Amino acid sequence: TTTTIMAKMHVLLVLLVVITSAVSSAPPNVVFVVIDDLRPQLNLAYGQNQTLTPFIDKLASESLVFDRAYCQLAVCAPSRNSFMTGRRPDTVKAWNFIDHFREKGIGDTWTPLPEFFKKNGYVTLGGGKTYHPNLPPDYDEPRSWTQEMPYFPLKKESCPDGATYCPLNKPDSEFYDNQLANNTISAMTLAVKEGKPFFVGSGFRRPHLPWRFPQRFFAEYPDSSTFKVALHQTAPSGMPDIAFTRTAFTSVKIDGKKYSDWGPHTPLPHNVQQKLRHGYYSAVSWVDSQVGRLMNALEELNVVNNTIVVLFADHG
């Protein structure tokens, strides 16, 4: 089944909406949206109804949805070095958070995706986590980006007291993904005024840990006790040790309590699993709202009929 394929192979969400005008001869614009650590656990795209994502659902309804898109490596930096250059990790020589494709003798002469558009007359502007921060250095600026605006760098955020997730009663403007959406809209607006086709990259931070989001998205969901837990609570019998790692979840902290003693054969308590799902779903809904702002901006700029929107995750 599609669900099994997703679970076993870390299928990326890739939504490609080609809404180019049949009568337009102008080169299409491209909005390249990368969502950090997003699972393909979506409604219209993949038939899973846990998350509330009305804007991504709308995009999916107008899009070509890929059911079999595979992750090159299941960590951020190697995956991004790979998909931004169109080369396999073994070619890029980046398997960790140390190496990058611009190292001498590897890809110092390569043309990655934004630079390709730049070389072909596009305005190329970006922000957030498109390239992994510092891998390559400075988000490959200025080689990949045309400099009408500086690249908008990723800003890390944390939850109070080191919590794994935190619904916060703060204005949207105090959350990085809102600031990134603002910058992306400004970049698209500037490019339209330039009168040139544009490639705008926008790399959202959530739902990467920690799950920090406005309180109202947490409140959209029922009490966490209603959420299902994983069907398979432990690893398969005979699974090799190398197949399991918990680099993201070395420990979990919820309601002031820290959980560290868990692993492939020692699951977290069910109520903790349910609370984690509540936090993750809320973070996805928060990012969905910002994706909606980008789509609305394309309508307001009157370029939606000549714009390709690509939405996907780095590794899920």
Question: What does this entry look like structurally?
Answer:
By secondary structure, the protein is of the alpha/beta class. Helix content is 30%, strand content 16%. The protein has a 6-stranded mixed sheet with strand order 3-1-10-2-6-4, with helices on both faces. The two termini are 18 Å apart.
Residue stretches low in confidence (pLDDT < 50, at least 5 long) are 1-23
Strand content: 15-25%
| Main sheet attributes: strand count, strand direction, barrel closure | 6 strands, mixed
| Through-space gap between termini | 18 Å
Outline: globular
Structural features:
316 residues; alpha/beta; six-stranded mixed β-sheet; two-stranded parallel ribbon; globular; disordered N terminus
Put the structure in a nutshell.
With 316 residues, the chain is of the alpha/beta class. Helices cover 30% and strands 16% of the residues. Strands 3-1-10-2-6-4 form a 6-stranded mixed sheet, with helices on both faces. Strands 5-7 form a two-stranded parallel sheet. Strands 8-9 form a two-stranded antiparallel sheet.
Blueprint of the fold:
Elements: H1 2-9, E1 14-20, E2 29-35, H2 43-46, H3 54-61, E3 64-66, H4 76-85, H5 89-92, H6 113-119, E4 123-128, E5 165-168, H7 176-194, E6 198-204, E7 211-214, H8 215-219, E8 252-254, E9 257-259, H9 270-300, E10 306-313
Parallel strand pairs: 2-6, 2-10, 4-6, 5-7
Antiparallel strand pairs: 1-3, 1-10, 8-9
Helix pairs in contact: 3-9, 7-9
